[in-house]
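Q: How would the structure tokens look for this protein?
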Amino acid sequence: MSSKILELLLQSFPKILLPGLTVTIPLTAISFGCAMIIATFVAMIQYAKIPILKEIARIYIWIFRGTPLLIQLYVVFFGLPNLGIMIDPFPCAVLVFALNEGAYCAETMRAGLESVPVGQIEAGYCVGMSYFQVMRRIVIPQALKAAFPSLSNSLISMLKDTSLVANITVAEMFMTTQRIVARTYEALALYLELALIYLIFSTVLTVLQHKGEKRLDVVGRRKKVKNAEN
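A: Here is the predicted structure in token form.
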């Protein structure tokens, strides 16, 4: 590697990293938080087997899982203005990512809900809990624990997919790198540097995932010991 390219990489690294910290990470965190709210709500509708609402939930999942994320971004950002609906780039990205990821996570949450033993649910009703108390105290905590690894993988995948929002003028890491490449013509080195930054972010999330899994295992063992003592 020539000294010129090395100097370019050293100069460009903070310029690429900054929008990663101020745009990519917030976009991922906000979108995933909203996606989890949507996913939990949709999964509970399917779990409760409410006929009409269940069909609406299935159609929502079918549409967002069956169409490309990039096209969804284009429809909302470039298409809705034809109907008089204007959305700024960042809120548009949050909306689309939340709806898209919510569809995938809803299936993960549904599987988690269905993994909870029926006997525990019946025990909750026997001690006088309402449906919502059973869901909040018994079903959802166990479902989240079962779904945690898959949800963590979805979060990491979403982090990488945020590079697509450059197509709707969100100035995140990929767009910043494109601008530097257009000026310097050093595509290979700069895109490898961008890949390295994404790898760093993904590695941090992977480490947090492992810590979270260990924490959930410890909490689960403590509850089992407490229940055995009672």
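Helices lie at 3-48, 51-66, 69-79, 89-114, 118-126, 131-161, 173-184, 187-229.

Residues 73 and 96 are 6 Å apart (CA to CA).

Upvote if useful.
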